[in-house]
Structures
1.
Amino acid sequence: MTTPSAFYLDCDTGIDDALALAYLLASPLASVVGIGTVSGNVSAAVGARNTLDLLELAGHAHIPVAVGAHHPLAGSFGGGAPWVHGENGIGEVSLAPAAASLAGESAAEMLVRLARTHAGSLKVLAIGPLTNIAEALRLEPALPSLVDSVTVMGGAALAPGNITPVAEANIWHDPEAAALVLAADWDVTLVPLDVTMASVLEEPHQQQLLASSGAVPRALGEMLGYYFRFYEGIYGRPCSAMHDPLAAALAVGAVRPALAPVVRAAVDTTSGPGRGQTVCDMRGLYAGYPPVAGARCRVVLSLEEDFAPHLVDTLLTLGEDAAVLDSTTAALASAGALTR
Ligand code: BDR
Ligand code: CA
């Protein structure tokens, strides 16, 4: 049996963040050891409450959640995207308020602590603006040598942006942070709009979730109703892109890219029309992307298989017994049988 990898998740929960979190909880390849939130789809504080509530619903209330940066490195939080994710960030679905409280550290502090605890093996998955990751790099300049991998949902390599003609939301909301993260001394896997907009969840998938006996898949199915209404304006039918859960599945290694060249990438931090663009050097396109000296950004452009069936099948494993699972986990942990 494969040992699950330790994951730090940085998110702005968010409907598709909720899908990504649920996917990680369901995946046998991942063990989430900490979650930090950042302002993006909602404020970092609201994202943290959503995360705690989802964790409790899923029977994983033991996973620590830290509130991260409220404002980007430059400027201030713009109020989120209620027209995409709802006022509460999770499509106006009401979850029971979690009893668990927030960690007594910031998200950046949590990431640094976990990177030291799981030195060389921690996988970082960032599915919101990159402010916390940039702050962690400032707190611990050796962070790149401490983590195993960094996967970022963000950017647009050859595809158009979704906030401006060239900027994707997670990068747009903190270009200065994204620039620092892409320039740091580590290899980054970028999961941009090129591949996430081509990975679509349709109404029959939503129906499968709604018909589940599990509270988590059903809640996600309800959230998708809101998300589908937004994306209907983009695709012309009720459906949605799968940004964050796809990044999660790529990070755990459950889905394989068909095309993912390793290129040089930087972020435009000017105040002109290019602000927030991920400037990926895709000039190798015509030669089949030959290796580029010094390139460190693996840009996922396409997948070997359709992602939606795998996502739904994995989410449906989060069944009714989640609360029982958590009480078992808590009992084992208090008996010292589990270490984190
Ligand atoms: C990204 O922006 C957010 O709205 C989503 O949660 C995703 O992380 C897509 O551009
Ligand atoms: Ca997100």
2.
Amino acid sequence: MPNGFPARVRIYEVGPRDGLQNEAHPLDTDTKLGYIERLVAAGLREIEATSFVSPRAIPQLADADALLLRLPHGDGVRYPVLVPNMRGMERAISAGATAIAVFTAASDAFTEANIGMSVDSSLEAFRPVLAEAARRGVWTRAYVSTAFGCPFTGRIEPERVVDVSLRLADLGAQEICLGDTIGVGVPSQVHELTARHIDAGLPLDRLAYHFHDTRGTALANVLAGLEDGVSCFDASAGGTGGCPYAPGAAGNLATEDLVYLLDGLGIEHGVQLGGVLEAARFISGALRRPLASKVGQAGGWDPSTGRATDREARQRW
Ligand code: COA
Ligand code: ZN
């Protein structure tokens, strides 16, 4: 692969969790399952399904316990769930979770607003959660949100991001995911963050990126991550999702836009574009809004034949 691109990439689907958590239009459990079933059919094998957080904080995901018990198993799919504290861990384990994600940020102001704790106290809250996960053989990821900028405090020093990442890794988090929560990042920041994490001793295969396309830089940032050799990227089918603290924020990088880029670059990922568009159309229909993604609007295009693909998947609005 040119430029040190990885030969294969993991697409970590966050639509059912990050994509839906701030949606005001309430969706029932059956609709969420319909979305997840379509994602599985599209070939996605890591699907962040829901959050075991306070139902008062995130009413849309209040059905986490019921949803988890009904997830389709048997295709080797990993379904991580968000867990903020031991209470969430106990609920997740009771519902059969085998993969979890804890979440903090690079700035105290954001962490306080999001989970009512400073970064330091969030790490203390995760200590028993990650220890329990290790004891049970549960797969673990840890998010460092606001790694590229904070809606409250602005610029984030990369040293601070690395410090939080390393402390999470020390607590046992297997994967560290750096989040551009408000979509302000640019490729030079990606290169700097990757380099600093590697210099600090975090192996490349434990690093993932989570981009929002708020200012149109998400795919450019993915390309920067690929050039660095990073091989796990988050995306949301349909490009749903947005941060409640970032007014006017667009959603996550759309899975269909990521798949299109990776296909064109010849990087393996195991996901079919048509299937993702099917899931994307399904969820945007349920949310009663047009598909926000570029490929969702234009359809795919096969450079070898010079023909448009997935035309039938186009939304007509
Ligand atoms: N699941 C369900 N309920 C929970 C819970 C969990 N994991 N953790 C706490 N609660 C309940 C408590 O029992 C309490 O309920 P009550 O008011 O009926 O007594 C209430 O939530 C408040 O709990 P408290 O311990 O005082 O914490 P808090 O009010 O500071 O809230 C969090 C802390 C972490 C529970 C809350 O901020 C939260 O769930 N945040 C999630 C934010 C999120 O998901 N953001 C998007 C992801 S980036
Ligand atoms: Zn996000």
